[in-house]
Amino acid sequence: MTNARALAHPAREEIRVEGVLHALSDPIRLRIVRQLAGAADELACSRFELPVSKSTTTHHFRVLRESGVIQQIYRGTAKLSGLRTEDLDTLFPGLLSSVLGAADLQAKRLGED
């Protein structure tokens, strides 16, 4: 019997660079990834304060999950998200750290941090 609350994720070998780059190209999704990168553990979706509706937030998390950037699991009633850092670093060495570094520099330059 499968868990009805299990979420579909691509296997490591199914993750494609163009999907990852697409997922990271949206400012809201990049904001989510930056928050996850700065967290010590997975974060509940409710921890994110985003300037979009709940349904749009759900869409952004789904794009990140389906592209292989994040993994999501249910713990009780909370849906927790975490970066797939090991998978991304294995497939595309330096990509995630470069994008996050560039995003951090941009945020500082624009006074968003």
From TrEMBL:
InterPro entries: ArsR-like_HTH (IPR011991), HTH_ArsR_DNA-bd_dom (IPR001845), HTH_MetalResp_TranReg (IPR051081), WH-like_DNA-bd_sf (IPR036388), WH_DNA-bd_sf (IPR036390). Keywords: DNA-binding, Transcription, Transcription regulation. Gene3D superfamilies: Winged helix-like DNA-binding domain superfamily/Winged helix DNA-binding domain (1.10.10.10). The keyword NADP does not apply. It comes from the Bacteria. The keyword Chloroplast does not apply. Pfam families: HTH_20 (PF12840). Residues 9-103 form the HTH arsR-type domain. GO terms for molecular function: DNA binding. PANTHER family: TRANSCRIPTIONAL REGULATOR, ARSR FAMILY, TRANSCRIPTIONAL REGULATORY PROTEIN. This is DNA-binding transcriptional ArsR family regulator. It comes from Streptomyces clavifer.
